[in-house]
TrEMBL record, chain B:
Family to which this protein belongs: Belongs to the UPF0237 family.
Lineage: Bacteria, Bacillati, Bacillota, Clostridia, Eubacteriales
Domain ACT: 5-79
Alphabetized Pfam families for the sequence: ACT_6
Record's protein name: UPF0237 protein BN656_00535
Organism: Bacteroides pectinophilus CAG:437
Matching InterPro entries: ACT-like_dom_sf (IPR045865), ACT_dom (IPR002912), UPF0237/GcvR_regulator (IPR050990), UPF0237_ACT (IPR022986)
NCBIfam families: PRK00194.1
HAMAP family referenced in this protein's UniProt entry, alphabetically: UPF0237
Length: 454, 90
């Protein structure tokens, strides 16, 4: 039987070390909502979401109460809207009406984000993909809960450089139309390479076409728990360090597995995957940067940071994989800047630059995330940043992403406040040497040689 | 069996166990295991109970024990046992 020490250990993780389940995300397929009449399409979408997810928030709250574990977010991911709206939408404004419907549905069921205002254009863009992408700035400006993502490349297809160019412009435009809110729209827009179909985390969540009609995916978290565990083995060798991370990741993931099973059972919806990510929040003691520092760095960004992160990411996976029957999504350490107090401090101390963050993205689960950059950064420069990240993802067969916020009217030295889980960020300097000639070449970068495995 | 773990933490005083046990007896909740320690004046108790024959729902018991804890100045938490089993047993 369970003993008092085990009970105390679990409750200490929850009460003092910020252990939580970061999100229960319900994936809903909207393919059966498609209609050539826009009003009918909007009605179908609203009805399907509010029917499938009507008990999602309530069930999440019940599980929280019974097991005593906080479930921070209840969210929804949907089929990329560019596919669903293809036959009904003839202008970007048509797509914006869908965004508003989604926003209304999200509000009705009480979730805090809905992801999937997305297009998958890793090889080419259809007319409807392009219309959706062009509607993103207005869609994000006129809604509250919608997250948008665009997949511009993959290891199998190469990189769609036309889409990369367009996304640089779209990020700029989104910043401009939400300038009154410190360009907040860009915090809900991510450009991906190798985007997974089952990611429960925002802003990149969407419900891929390879998925079932409705599923439950769960994202676990717990950087604080790993950090506290490492404090007890300070200065031990790498074997001990790795064992400690693995054991902790196992325990964290088991809680996620339990929550996923319970949610799936109570909602009568199949369980999809557990995403084993270490996702930080701006709360003190809930930071991935703090773990890197505990491993032995003065600041995140110091030489050795990439090695420490590679080790951390690998051990989290090794510990977590055994704890769950199905692991998927992004599964690794997240390194957003504005959502991690340790990262913010490292930037302010001058230890962490965008270039170092780019190196770190080669060994962790996502990419350049929640980075505020000067508002006067050129669209082509943003496209260049996206192309670099996509190339890292394409060649290394991993997911990479760019979520940068060119904050209108602000420059290096200023700070921007997004609020809540999105946190705050100092504006980081960007290399401003011109890259417009490579960005303006039309076409796509071919798939790398090692993708030809057949 | 519907096992629930009850933890009681707070400043030691007379009658904490009596209060909790009386409540559980009235509610028809069977106690399977109790362990208790005092660490530097702080009372720390864990109980494993079976709610199969309980007259109260989980929510009611949680709310009522929370209230009882407030009265005697300790914090009382109820959690389903599975969260501990999942984390500490393979």
């Amino acid at each position: 039987m369970i003993n008092v020490f085990e009970v105390n250990e679990t409750n200490k993780m929850i009460q003092q070390e910020n252990l939580d389940v970061r999100t229960i995300t319900m994936g809903i397929s909207l393919l059966d909502c498609a209609d050539s009449d826009l009003n009918k399409l909007n009605e179908n979408i609203y009805n399907k979401i509010t029917t499938c997810a009507k008990d999602l928030v309530k069930t999440g709250q019940e599980i929280e109460k019974e097991f005593g574990i906080p479930i921070v977010n209840k969210r929804i991911s949907i089929t990329p809207i560019a596919m669903v709206g293809a036959s009904a939408c003839h202008t970007p404004e048509d797509y914006v009406t869908i965004a508003k419907t989604l926003d209304r549905a999200a509000k009705t069921v009480g979730v805090n984000f809905l992801g999937g205002y997305s297009a998958v254009v890793s090889k080419g863009m259809t007319k409807s993909d392009e219309l959706l992408i062009r509607s993103i700035p207005q869609a994000l400006a006129q809604t509250e809960f919608i997250c948008s993502s665009v997949n511009v490349g993959s290891t199998k297809t190469g990189i769609n450089m036309d889409a990369v160019k367009l996304m640089g412009e779209i990020v700029k435009e989104t910043a401009e139309v939400t300038a009154d809110r410190d360009s907040l729209g860009c915090a809900k827009l991510v450009v991906l390479c190798n985007a997974p179909d089952d990611n429960p985390f925002m802003a990149g969540a969407f419900h891929g076409v390879s998925e079932a009609d409705c599923i439950i995916n769960v994202g676990v978290s717990g950087p604080g728990v790993v950090k506290y565990a490492l404090e007890s083995v300070r200065d031990a060798n790498f074997e001990v360090l790795c064992e400690t991370i693995k054991k902790t990741a196992f325990k964290i993931t088991r809680v996620g597995q339990l929550v996923a099973q319970e949610a799936s059972k109570r909602l009568g919806v199949p369980f999809g995957i557990i995403d084993l990510s270490l996702a930080p929040t701006p709360a003190i003691g809930d930071s991935v940067a703090d773990i890197l520092q505990e491993i032995g760095l003065e600041r995140a960004g110091a030489p050795g940071t990439t090695a420490a992160l590679a080790l951390l990411n690998d051990q989290v996976k090794k510990g977590g994989v055994m704890a769950s029957s199905y692991v998927g999504g992004l599964s690794g350490a997240f390194i957003p800047v504005s959502e991690d107090q340790g990262m913010i401090d490292s930037v302010l101390a001058g230890a962490l630059t965008i270039e170092k963050l780019e190196a770190m993205t080669c060994v962790c689960s996502v990419g350049l995330d929640m980075i505020a950059i000067p508002g006067d950064t050129k669209a082509t420069t943003i496209s260049g940043i996206i192309a670099d990240e996509a190339a890292i993802g394409m060649v290394n067969q991993k997911t990479t992403a760019v979520r940068v916020i060119p904050v209108v009217g602000k420059t290096v030295g200023d700070t921007v406040e997004f609020g809540g889980l999105l946190g705050y960020a100092p504006i980081m300097p960007v290399n401003n040497f011109d890259c417009s000639r490579i960005v303006n070449r039309a076409g796509r970068i071919p798939a790398p040689i090692h993708s030809f495995k057949n | 069996m519907k096992k629930v773990v009850i933890t009681v933490v707070g400043k030691d005083t007379v009658g904490i166990i009596a209060r909790v046990c009386t409540y559980l007896a009235d509610a028809g909740v069977n106690i399977l295991d109790i362990s208790q320690t005092i660490v530097s004046g702080y009372f720390n108790m864990m109980m494993i109970v079976d709610m199969s024959a309980s007259k109260r729902s989980f929510d009611e018991m949680q709310a009522e024990l929370d209230k009882a804890g407030e009265d005697i100045g300790v914090s009382i938490k109820c959690q389903r046992e599975e969260i501990f089993d999942m984390m500490h047993r393979i």
